[in-house]
Amino acid sequence: MKFTTKVQLLSLELGLLLPVTATAQPMQATPVVLRVSLFDDAGVGATTLREAAREASRIFLPANIDVIWLQLPQDSLAQTAFGRCSEASFPAHLHLRILLRSHGANKSVVGMSFLSAEGKGCYADLFYEPVLEMQRENHIGAAIILGHAMAHELGHLLLGSNSHSRYGLMRAQWNRDDLAQAARANLLFSPEESTRMRSRFTRDDPRTETAQME
User: What is the pLDDT of residues 4-24, one digit of tens each?
Assistant: First the structure.
C-alpha cells in the first residue's frame, strides 16, 4: 500500500489567531468507540502517557467518540500475546507509536499520519523530542502538548486526506497562541470535523464501552 501523507504540527512563529472555543455540543446519538493501540517507544513513562491519553480523550468527547487506549509492550513477542489488541482496522482500531525523534523529517515535526491514496489509514507516529522542546519554550506541560498531538494525528486518520484547517486543533502548524489555547482546553475539533469523523463509523457498531486506559 502506498502511503501519501506527511503531517507537520509545529511552528513557533508568532501570529494572529482567532480564538477557538468549545462550541461543539455533544451529540445525542449513542457514542461510537475508537480503540487506539499505543506504543511508547520513546520511554515517555506511564504517568505522562496516562495524562496525555486523558487529554486526547477529552478532545474527542464533543464528537461523541469514546476512546479506549490499549497500551502495548515494546517487546514484539509480548505484543503477539495481546492478540487482537496488536491488530488494526479502519476506522475502529488505530495505532499510535511514540518515537523519540523522526529520522529524515525536520526536527520540528511532531507527528506523521499515513494514508492510502483512498484517504484511509490506521497508523500514525508521534515524536517526543519536539514535544519536550515545545514544553521548554512555552512552559506548557508535556502531557497537554502530547495529548493534543495524539488527537491531531488520530483526527487525520479519521478525517482522511486534506484534513488540515485554518484554525483549531487541525491547523497544519501550531504557534504560541495555539498552545495557549491548548493549555486552556480550547484547542478542539470543529463541529464539522466532529461530524465527519463520526461518519466514518458504521451506525450499527455495538461497542459502547467506557473510555479507559488499559
Answer: 333 334 332 222 233 333 344
Report yes or no on 19 lying in a domain: no
Determine, yes or no, domain membership for 153: yes
**What 3-state DSSP class applies to 126?**
strand
C-alpha cell at 178: 495555539
Q: Is 14 inside any structural domain? A: no
The three-class DSSP label of residue 73 is: coil
CA 112 to chain CA centroid, nearest Å = 10
CA angle 183/184/186 to nearest 5° reads 110
Q: Which pTM was predicted? A: 0.79
> Taking the chain, what is the end-to-end CA distance rounded to the nearest angstrom?
30
Q: CATH number for the domain including 120? A: 3.40.390
Distance CA 164, CA 162 (A): 6
